[in-house]
Amino acid sequence: MSCEVITKERVGVINPIFTCQPAGAQYVSIGVKDCIGLVHGGQGCVMFVRLIFSQHFKESFEIASSSLHEDGAVFGALNRVEEGVDVLLMRYPDVKVIPIISTCSTEVIGDDIDGVIRKLNNGLLKEKYAGREVHLIPVHTPSFKGSQVSGYDVAVEAFVKHFAKKGEKSEKINLITGWVNPGDVKTLKHLLSEMNIDANVLFEIESFDSPLIPEENTVSHGETTIEDLQDTANAIGTIALNRYEGGKAAEYLENEFEIPAIIGPSPIGIRNTDIFLKNLSKMTGKPIPKSLAHERGIALDTITDLTHMFFAGKKVAIYGHPDLVIGLAEFCLDLEMKPVLLLLGDDNTTYVKDPRIKSLQENVNFDMEIVLNADLWELEDRIKNKGLEVDLIMGHSKGRFVSIDNNIPMLRVGFPVFDRAGYFRHPVMGYEGAMWLAEEMANIIFNDMEVKKNKEWILAMW
């Protein structure tokens, strides 16, 4: 019985788990108020990312492109950045923040986005937009390395580096959520509110779930302000919930401004939510109220109703963002399930040093594989050709055909989810998230029992 960490042996990728770094940077940009990202690359670098955002949230988001063409790839295309910034500022009078997000093509040809930002700050912004607050932020996200996960991490750090400004000490904390859903942010803010804790939340994305109101043009956009970002340098501490999605920014604030940082674990499941609340209490000196103990008790009761009868011994395969996958695996272990296969889909070589992965290696009492730089063929091949038996798959919608073709039930979780309605409204974090995950897993297993006539009589007795 062992937990083995291996790296995909194939050079090529078949059905990738993640997309590229610029997608992560664009996700950060839509979380900031009065911000429109300008992606310096081909039109598709924005079009397909906006499409996947729209598939997941069923909303439209404003992201711009420098629309690089063949001539720019040969002769350079910084003029497209200059034109793009000018057009954005003319067309959107409220825009104050424009991150310039690089892509593989513009990094390869060597376009100097830092240099063009200096040129624009000393030229266009002074001459044509004098007196207007405009922030141009270079975000380097070449898509020939890393993934949407590392792109998110790089972009959060770039925003914090640009804006963090030492001033009066505040009583706020910084909460860096990572790549989560609006439902998670709502739940996290509820936990903060119950503990009477004020926070700079990076990022306020509850408004991604936009209303449809007659005679109003409602655009989905985040609500984290410039003032929130500036105030990160004055907080009493930073909690980054995801090590690989905001950890760099937390470390920067600690090193540059001596803001104490706690990085992880992601508050997925009872155990990790308990740790999160204890970290909040330790950082702020505020007690955990009885109201949250009550919520914890309800979540425990919900899970107890399901665990031994339906979850115990069930084998699970999980893929997606690393912090999410590890958090879900830890939760499954607490539910007496066996996460036998974890797939992490990019070239980050530091995963093997993650203390959570080391803990899995030291403590699991069944055979588990953790595959680095994985793709979804690693999942399909093991099930179809190598005899891996799993009772449940957990991951985003890109792996749906592995589930369908092999007749294995699947819980959609992570990003993107486009073949189920409203999943972005449901949290996976906090006690509420633990209940939703447990009940959703159970309902999917119940449906599978009924379809396959596998002890479905138990449901009539339960």
UniProtKB/TrEMBL annotation:
User: Could you name the domain of life of the organism this protein comes from?
Assistant: Bacteria
For this UniProt record, give its keywords in alphabetical order, as a comma-separated list: Nitrogen fixation
**What SUPFAM superfamilies does this protein's entry cite?**
Helical backbone' metal receptor (SSF53807)
Positions of the Nitrogenase/oxidoreductase component domain: 20-445
Under InterPro entries, the record lists: ChlB/BchB/BchZ (IPR050152), Nase/OxRdtase_comp1 (IPR000510), Nase_comp1_CS (IPR000318), Nase_Fe-Fe_bsu (IPR014280)
Q: Which Pfam families match?
A: Oxidored_nitro
Q: Which Gene3D superfamilies match?
A: Nitrogenase molybdenum iron protein domain (3.40.50.1980), Nitrogenase Molybdenum-iron Protein, subunit B, domain 4 (1.20.89.10)
Which GO molecular function annotation, any one, does this entry have? Answer: nitrogenase activity
Q: Which family does it belong to?
A: Belongs to the NifD/NifK/NifE/NifN family.
Kindly provide the name given to this protein in its UniProt entry: Fe-only nitrogenase FeFe protein subunit AnfK
Species for this entry: Clostridium intestinale DSM 6191
